[in-house]
Give the backbone structure.
Amino acid sequence: MTNQQRMALIKALYNLIFTCKSQSFQQWQLAPKPTGYEPIITAWVPRTFVNGTVRGIDIDVNDGGKILQLRFMEQNPNKEDKAGNLKETSIRARNGEFLMWVVDRKPGGGFLGSIQNGDWIASQMRATTPAQYNTAGAGAPHTEFTSNSITDIPGDMATPEFVVETMADFNPDDYNVDDFDESAYDDMDIGDQSHDVPNQ
């Protein structure tokens, strides 16, 4: 299959999932393969996820002798983050946007991308290899820092003299400006913060 043929198949499955939304889940499980793709789709399993509330399809595709094992599923409109708030994509799905995720089902596979309102968005790989420089913080081994081990900071920047933060477990999806709860500071008297901070 050419890349253009793969994309046409992905879009056909996207259209199938969202045009069948008016059908019951029992009817969905009988959904036919998209016309023209019958010979290359070797396995076809329309199914539901999240207790029968989210439509998806598991398929195997013969791509010139190589079998692709893929899962296509619509966005769960009730998906929450760790803090119990609806995820941004869940809110978008509740507002009528059409979001579908594409996953490689093979062992070691992963998220391949999504179609959002008809547009393909490829997965962005995240860095998983630790950086090759010294860091300090909880759990980090003690390291003597010298002037040679600190990155040069341009003199015209208002940057504190020494800032070190451990980022080993940082996941940007865990942080959201909307999740910040200012009420936790309601009882604190931190005084007037309008004065200028003196240069050090």
In short: The longest helix spans residues 3-19.
